[in-house]
């Protein structure tokens, strides 16, 4: 039996592929741990020591279910962002929140617009609910607001996904551009503004919070600058009626107690956040230098990673990625042309970047020699 | 605007109610913490100290996403249960796994059978995907396998939910009864055997593991006897093709790093588990005595809670529950008649049960005086 006959037609139609193979699985396949873990845009600088201490202390309380409303964290976020608590929903990372949002809005054939090469997990959720995904190419390594809007109008999209700064290129648009995009979308369409990397971006990239605007939902996370990817804490900010609708389908007790406490402590330590983003900025600059020293260009990034142009096509970049992997360096790369001429390297510690500096040249040479 | 016009018709049709209001939310409403937290069948004895230590140590590693396959935990569970790893899926509690399973099997109108008064969160998921839920009354405070089978055959049910020991009454059936039920179900139906409370039950209640049997999926959790409700770790054991189908829709990186590590350490400490189940057995006996000392009967339980018959109807039990709440004791009660003549009290520490002993008589008297 290759499949279960009880699956719904939709479930039976879905591919068995997963959006991302995790680094632990890759390590098991290669039979050795990576020397530098720079493929998932995690924060190698770790979470705030205050968050670590709070989580360690909360571990003994794990016999209690977490607060199903993430009340204390949500109140702290409301203060932090200056928005009403009923405009915030906390969930199991942006991945989990995107899944719930897609479930609320997308059924078979529902038109959805995103960028070609943008976040695969969003596409996975849309496919998982049978939506019709329309993907617009990047333009000059940026998501293209005008073409996204045009497609949204053409297909009367219910959801339009836009990441700013974007993943996998790290480029960004300013608030005026985002406002124009929002204003030009068709009525009845919802702009998902994925701001997972907002904490690393210049202030010109971050619109003011306007949770009453029914046209936009913002996605934020503790997985990146706050260094808590493994704790699975994301949140969405949007119009209260839409946020309330999450209650109808979400896994109410899905947030762990330790994670709620950790995120709250991390939020309180803005000094740590500032220190991390400063180190990330240094890492971006150094990755640019490592690339240029090898005669390569890199894409100016507002995120905690840098896309390095390997100077060829997707096959060459794939070979570079594989050669880096054999040298113990875990990175990823964009999935579609022409973005896939690049590899995407997370901003590591100085020690991590020493390893990148030491291995990238040989990896490039070995990749070129394969041809 | 009272709703978001972009919701799917199904999402728009769902009620805003949630299956459970959590104890923290109840505490906020009453304006004071509970003295005894005995409403959610959590393990007041806590997790193994080895689990706590492992979680505290893992907190600093929370910058890394958790292993998306929960590989190490899954391997340990495979050894523990003597089943192949590909018959196990780890998820965000049984709640999360039930949601994913329902999503895989249930679409609008799909027939599903459960017991009236059984786990509300399962019903919530079925409603959330538009399934047609058929609920069979308990018989003599037990789920009724024969009537469940008869209804499953009548409606050609795709899913049949059966908890053993059951919640909210704590009663159980033996393996021969479960085997008869499984054998009598219609072809194309899947038996969900929810064994959240299996660790407290007599061995006669627990069938051997037969993961190749395509008719059954078993649900287990670290939330009850292992004392990790707040860590959200459940797992399902079933036929490999069905388990593989979870990969098509689940939130792959949804398991936190701390929780995976904690569950694995908890699993290794079977002495702690034995100590907890022994204390739970003492708690059950004492709750029975507390009830009988007040002239009340209680339902013999194979779980970590006892349903105490308040000797009247649902309104009386509801009043007793409220009076206990005013006295700082958090308990819950079944939602439907005639089960709702009872309150459901989790097995607390001796100090917790001292509080129950001290407050239950006055609460009964106050409830009776309301009439």
TrEMBL record, chains A, B:
Q: Which Pfam families match?
A: Aminotran_1_2
Q: Which superkingdom, per the lineage?
A: Bacteria
Please name the top-level EC class of this enzyme: transferase
Cofactors demanded by this protein: pyridoxal 5'-phosphate
Q: Which UniProt keywords apply?
A: Aminotransferase, Pyridoxal phosphate, Transferase
Molecular-function annotations in GO = histidinol-phosphate transaminase activity; pyridoxal phosphate binding
State the EC number(s): 2.6.1.9
UniProt name for this protein: Histidinol-phosphate aminotransferase
Query: Highest lineage ranks of the organism?
Result: Bacteria, Pseudomonadati, Pseudomonadota, Alphaproteobacteria, Rhodobacterales
